[in-house]
Amino acid sequence: MTHQHHSPAPGVPGAPAAGGELSLAQKASLTSGAGDFVTQAAGDVPAVSLSDGPHGLRLPKEQGDGGQVDLHSAAPATCFPPAVALGSSWDPQLAGRVAAAIAAEARAHGVHVVLGPGINIKRSPLCGRNFEYFSEDPLVTAEVGGAMVRGLQEAGVGAALKHYAANNQETDRMRVSADIDERPLREIYLRAFERIVRRDRPWSVMSAYNAVNGVPLSENHRLLTGILRTEWGFDGVVMSDWGAVRDRVPALRAGLDLQMPGTGGRTDAEVVAAVESGELDARTLDRSVARLALFARRATAADATAADEVSYEAHHELARTAAERCVVLLKNDGELLPLAPDSGTVAVIGEMARTPRFQGAGSSQVTPTRLDVPLDCLNAAANGASVTFAAGYALPSAEADADADADATDDLVEEAERLAAGSDTVLLFLGLPAQDESEGFDRDHIDLPAAQVRLLERVVAVNPRVVVVLSNGGVVRTAPWHDRVPALVEGWLLGQGGGAALAGVLFGSVNPSGRLAETIPLRLEDSPSHLSFPGEEGHVRYGEGVFVGYRGYDKRRAEVAFPFGHGLSYTTFTYSALTVLPEADGARLELRVRVANTGQRAGREVVQIYSRGPADSRVARPERELRGFASVELAPGEEVEVRVSVDRADLAHYSEREAKWRVEGGVHHFEVAASSRDIRLTVPVTLDGDPSRILLTGRHTLAEWLEHPVGGPLLAEAFARGRTDESAGAMADPVMRRFLAGVPLDVIADFPQSSVGPEDVITLSAKVAAEAAGGEPPADDDE
């Protein structure tokens, strides 16, 4: 990987441009904010303006002295679909267009860096901030999130990739330690960060509130420096989440460059004192100052050019188009959808049709430039159908308990029941009230409000033609009631254009093509993380390991309501002629498959590529893992070849013993699928494995010696040379071989009847070490 090098400026080592000498106090001031959402300027290093806004800008209406802002009101900006919806588009190109539009609005308002995207993994459906995250899968997360990074930065606005790392719950979020084994940490929780950092080069990374394995992220040298900078080559700025820094001096030593927000100079003085006393090496501070100077000049470089005029109307249309791609059709029995223009009387029931939820709560909340209301849009799209409305329930006020049953009176239910009984079709809008999910707290269940479920039961009892439309930022349980409705639409939170998008899907001007980026379980208890979420006494143990989301559901063969990757269309697609070809350099495989639209409507299909590891794998593996995806838009009767490249390195698991990624040799199966439970075609591919770097010793077992590519043949030869009738009999007995497989070789060597003695073990270990010395530095394993 290449790295940029810059000539140092006087007083600011490593800075990209000349400038006056900075005093120690000025250097210290650069490493903390000047206010809530602005960095400090010093010498010729300019201030940088920051804004919340992974799916749109949260713009302060007024900015007070010192950069403090009013967090309770914001100027209008386009509210695009939040990550929960955008992830279901499985469309990186669309995410890039959304990010470019956000960047244009940022430039128009003088914002240099957008605080996002958030790419944490959806470990549990209970996480209160899941609406800000893309998926339970690191590849979907990396592809959609990485496209947003590129879209922002190619338009001259920086991204702040967050929240690094393992920030997967809101409960005790500022203190909790996420206790994770190295393999799931690498394969699940760091994987998307690594892919985006290496490929997309974000200008900044935001460190999370939590600790990992007992070490707070703001002071975690291994994660901030050892992995992020040294392994992955990150050369940008690491900033803290707001209020995440516990001790500024250890944080600087760990690799944190910028504490946010500012502390009025209090912690700046601590940095100055630490340098003067020798507690903090001045070179450590200088390295952070150099990175901050480069970051500030890069972020403000576009200030010299005039920002393009923003068309908020065009951005609203993009928000609507994006929302259309995010809607997931979960169920459509009897092809109830789309509704025909002459579909008679349509009853729209549910307050959320009139008062929509279109985004989550907390730091990502946007004041939209306009809002498409589903009820209004349904009336406009009806084309002759008669649309009537009944609230059915009341949304709780901000002061009310979201779990209270007072949100639906008998009068509202009876009115809805009468309307449903007299209509041809019912569109029933249900979902989570805002009080149920937000930054700052987790949910304690995944159910719809009880009053809404009762309303559904009353409506279905009088009219079987019911389409349920969901609005929710986190997964909701649809069982058992989803069996009683013929059609179910997952609308997520769709941003300001969501109302028109839903109307288009329901009346058929839009063919739905969204796919679930997370599993919808039958019960909360089925979630792989259920028994270890959200932890206790300051620790949460990630006991499910790599079996997160569909990896866990599929491995346990657990029934689910709707699987990862699922989504229906108003047309049909078939797959044929799957082939896998190694690319010329051997570093990639190219999968080719023919996809045909066999239905009567134009549509978009998301082609998903999974792989299964060798059946004799020596490590615990998921049943299948997503390795790539592509989408294709086809007219009726059209057929095309779809090509997806998979890096060989992506097939590796992380070996904790060897401290490296390792591809296992053997037969890997590649699957083309419409979801993790809908496998259409499979092809086996035999791959050579990566060589082991373990230095074998007498403490390694007989099985580990025999499986080692160098040690195995050497030991077999030694056994053959020193074989006695008794030892030969023992090795030929299958029961005895299984018994000895787990015994360390030095123990076997001590048996009088062994054909390999203690001196042989020393000789064999030395030969393995000598062979390894000819390649990479070996892993020193002292089991």
Shape estimate? globular
Number of helices: 23
Poorly predicted parts? 1-19, 62-68, 402-406
Oligomeric state of this protein: single chain
**How many angstroms separate the termini?**
33 Å
Quick gist of this model?
By secondary structure, this protein is α/β, with parallel strands linked by helices.
Description:
This protein has 783 residues and is of the alpha/beta class. The chain has 23 helices and 28 strands. Strands 11-16-15-14-12-13 form a 6-stranded mixed beta sheet, sandwiched between helices. A 5-stranded parallel beta sheet has the order 1-4-5-7-10. The two termini are 33 Å apart.
Features:
783 residues; alpha/beta; 28 strands; 30% helix; disordered N terminus
Note the topology:
Blueprint: H1 24-30, E1 50-52, E2 59-60, E3 74-75, H2 83-87, H3 92-108, E4 113-115, H4 138-154, E5 158-164, E6 177-179, H5 182-189, H6 191-200, E7 204-207, E8 211-212, E9 215-216, H7 221-231, E10 237-240, H8 248-254, H9 266-277, H10 282-300, H11 312-326, E11 328-332, E12 345-349, H12 351-354, H13 374-381, E13 386-390, H14 410-421, E14 425-431, H15 450-462, E15 466-471, E16 487-490, H16 498-507, E17 520-521, E18 539-541, H17 550-555, E19 560-562, E20 573-582, E21 588-597, E22 603-612, E23 625-634, E24 639-647, E25 653-655, E26 660-662, E27 666-675, E28 678-687, H18 702-707, H19 711-721, H20 725-732, H21 734-741, H22 745-750, H23 758-772
Parallel strand pairs: 1-4, 4-5, 5-7, 6-8, 6-18, 7-10, 12-13, 12-14, 14-15, 15-16
Antiparallel strand pairs: 2-3, 8-9, 11-16, 17-19, 20-21, 21-24, 22-23, 22-27, 25-26, 27-28
Helix pairs in contact: 1-9, 3-4, 3-11, 4-6, 11-16, 13-16, 14-15, 19-23
